């Protein structure tokens, strides 16, 4: 498979491994929620900070400058204390070079049981929605204006004034009336029980589904039509479905084959008949080693082929040797890794 042809696809594989095969700077927006703190049993998937870092590193690499990552996450209570995993992850994103554009709240309007009167903590009804932008402010920020203004149509009473650079008080004559609606606050509330999340019955087989409205609101806020939206933990396929309905391109990654075949694919086929499940194999470690050595040691383009041939003499990798004999390896600076991976994957087919 040509991994560069990822638009409008559902890819099966480990998120970090699949993302490593993506070209750089291609994603406009990521909207996702990781399996944080092992709060649910995802079979043989153990989630920890090291695995998070692998994925965060790749998200930074594949996101466009000014692209956005919406990271929906919460904390488990372990031995009487919240884990703080959400904050550790947010700080790591910042360390990579992301800007923390906004710390938003996903409030769950749910009929969950209230906290015990004999307990020591209040009912937990929210998750964080960290909104990161790569290197600079978001390329797109279309704020949703649905907060009704009580004084719509009115102007201020008295005089409107401001101070100029000299410190003088200046009266503002051009006073605009209060608009009917203003941008909403950054605490977003959604119904999260059964049909309120989605009407798709297949989706409810998944243990943790997004409200479609939450995904829709973020897509409308941080993307424009034609942008490419990623969900590296695609689950039931909500981000993919909503992206398509809003005329955005999408790509989802999900490691769990049962989720893909029994939930996401049947659900998405109803809305996107052409969608297919694509199995992505991990690039062999020996090939990754070769790629890394090429990146680290080859500076000039003309050195590439000679150095690669010399390197392969030290590596027992018949597949790579065959590739080098059949096709000229030609890579350029930043594109070197992506071009080599593409060559390897195309050769497999």
From TrEMBL:
Q: Which GO terms describe its biological process?
A: DNA restriction-modification system; DNA-templated transcription termination; methylation
Question: Domain DNA methylase N-4/N-6: where?
Answer: 27-262
Keyword check for Metal-binding: no
Q: Specify the enzyme's EC class, one word.
A: transferase
Gene3D superfamilies in the cross-refs:
Vaccinia Virus protein VP39
The EC number(s) given in the record are 2.1.1.113
Quote one Gene Ontology molecular function term: site-specific DNA-methyltransferase (cytosine-N4-specific) activity
Residue span, Rho termination factor-like N-terminal domain: 312-345
What reaction gets catalysed by this protein? a 2'-deoxycytidine in DNA + S-adenosyl-L-methionine = an N(4)-methyl-2'-deoxycytidine in DNA + S-adenosyl-L-homocysteine + H(+)
Q: Which UniProt keywords apply?
A: DNA-binding, Methyltransferase, Restriction system, S-adenosyl-L-methionine, Transferase
Q: Does the keyword Iron apply?
A: no
Q: Which family is it part of?
A: Belongs to the N(4)/N(6)-methyltransferase family. N(4) subfamily.
Task: Kindly provide the name given to this protein in its UniProt entry.
Answer: site-specific DNA-methyltransferase (cytosine-N(4)-specific)
Species annotation: marine metagenome
